[in-house]
Design a protein that fits this description.
This protein is mostly helical and about 500 residues long. The protein contains 17 helices and no strands. About 45% of the residues are buried.
């Protein structure tokens, strides 16, 4: 693939993925406003308690084969068909295991309703297994426009049904229906519109070849999934469903902010990294540009949300969710590191260092779990969340160190590249806090003033200091701004 063509496809992919993510955020924004008023913390707590089981099951079903297929430069029809039948078959086995262990899981959380919820929601695993290869091929071909359109349509339809069900008093079952529809609708569309159909074959050679790479990716993902969700086990078992609901709402809101931009970049970056794996300097330049772009947008967003946490939760979710605000503010500090983790980790996977990724993933996740458990034992839920913050930064530093070792983008250089962004974000935070403190306005006026002062301070500092991250972001955004401007003029 020629360099210019690759760049064009990557930029176009970022555009469509960003469009999808932006619209998804908008849909989730509307969803949060409506559903948070119709449902209770207990309803969200029930879904939150099952999250670790659903995610671990999905990780086992994928088995690292999705990453292996993208990393392989020319997968064959035999490769795709083999993994398709493996995923579907394994998803049925995993679902049956969840079905028969559901009563034990419900007793662990002291919530009988979870048995029925898990048995119904577990069907999502089988449905998603049917679409994995379809989505994998679209990603491999940089056809992010189609993925974006299908995802947005599915989000809109599923949200509409969920709101009607929640309004009608179905409670937690409205959230279950949303998850089922978000799996079924895209699967149905892909099978109706994509040309690919599996061959009636299962190649042991293809399986072994992909397994050799995917196995360590699977172990890495499995370790990360467990470590990233163990807090749900602790909170769900030792506290009640309401506390779990407050944590789930805080965590989902933080993740929506911290990962929205990085997920856009990650969806495009992995196939892009795979194409550039033989060109070290271009790979380094790409990682640097993506790191600076993500940090330039996400760092100020996370600090601003810490400032505005209380009014944001009142506006979005109503005052009954205010108990989640302290959780959210602590988690936003973790979000500063979370937004950059995948940018580094995917580059290591793309160059084929899956074994090294697993070894270091096990080390960093083990350290992270120790911090979380010790924090929880000493300070309860807040200590657990502080442990999550420490874990997030440890993961980022280790990921950056692996990039330094295997790709050549030195750790100290990475830290020096993002330091200016962090410094001016903190400066804008401080200025807006101090000025609004002396004004002493009402909560909503105060939030508005803080937002304006923060934005002005951040942009002025970026321009005055001619920050590299600002210039890179401006260079990437300008072509699309001009394109949108031309279309508006025509209208």
């Amino acid at each position: 693939m020629q360099g210019n063509q690759l760049k064009a496809k990557a930029v176009n992919g970022v555009f469509w993925t960003f469009t999808q993510r932006f619209m998804s955020i908008f849909i989730q924004f509307i969803s949060n406003i409506i559903l948070a008023r119709l449902l209770t913390p207990d309803d969200y707590g029930c879904i939150g308690m099952l999250t670790i089981f659903m995610l671990l099951s999905a990780t086992i079903i994928d088995g690292g084969f999705s990453s292996a297929l993208i990393q392989k430069k020319r997968p064959t029809q035999e490769d795709y068909s083999t993994i398709f039948f493996w995923n579907v078959g394994l998803s049925i086995v995993i679902y049956l295991i969840l079905f028969y262990t559901a009563p034990f899981i419900a007793r662990f959380y002291h919530t009988e309703l979870l048995c029925q919820v898990l048995r119904v929601q577990g069907v999502v695993l089988i449905i998603n297994a049917l679409q994995t290869i379809q989505v994998n091929q679209l990603n491999k071909q940089f056809r992010f426009k189609k993925i974006s359109i299908v995802t947005l349509f599915s989000s809109f339809v599923s949200l509409s049904v969920t709101i009607v069900m929640a309004y009608s008093g179905y409670g937690v079952w409205s959230l279950v229906a949303q998850n089922l529809l978000m799996a079924f609708i895209p699967t149905f569309i892909y099978w109706c519109t994509n040309k690919w159909m599996p061959m009636l074959t299962f190649s042991v050679n293809s399986f072994k070849e992909l397994f050799n790479f995917g196995f360590f990716m699977f172990l890495t993902s499995l370790t990360s999934t467990f470590a990233n969700n163990i807090q749900g086990l602790l909170i769900g078992h030792f506290y009640n469903a309401s506390q779990m609901g407050y944590y789930s709402k805080a965590h989902r809101t933080e993740m929506l902010a911290s990962t929205s931009i990085s997920q856009v970049v990650s969806q495009v970056s992995y196939p892009l990294y795979a194409e550039l794996q033989d060109n070290q300097q271009k790979l380094i330049d790409t990682i640097k540009k993506l790191t600076l772009s993500v940090s330039y947008l996400t760092f100020p967003m996370m600090l601003l949300l810490i400032l505005l946490a209380k009014p944001v939760f009142i506006i979005l979710y109503s005052e009954k969710w205010l108990s989640a605000v302290p959780f959210f503010q602590i988690l936003c500090i973790a979000g500063l590191a979370i937004c950059l983790q995948s940018v580094n980790s995917q580059s290591i996977a793309a160059i084929g260092k899956s074994k090294a990724m697993f070894i270091w993933s096990f080390i960093k996740q083990t350290i992270g779990i120790i911090f979380m458990v010790v924090g929880w034992y000493i300070y309860g839920i807040n200590g657990l969340l502080i442990g999550m913050v420490m874990k997030s930064w440890i993961i980022y530093i280790i990921n950056a160190s692996l990039v330094s070792k295997y790709i050549g983008y030195k750790l100290w250089k990475q830290l020096m590249d993002i330091l200016p962004v962090l410094m001016i974000s903190i400066l804008a935070f401080t200025i807006s806090y101090i000025i609004s403190y002396f004004i002493g306005a009402t909560i909503y006026v105060d939030a508005f003033i803080k937002s304006i002062i923060f934005a002005i301070s951040y942009i002025l500092c970026s321009v005055c200091f001619k920050m590299e991250s600002y210039l890179i972001f401006k260079d990437l955004a300008t072509p699309y701004w001009l394109k949108i401007k031309r279309k508006l003029i025509k209208v």
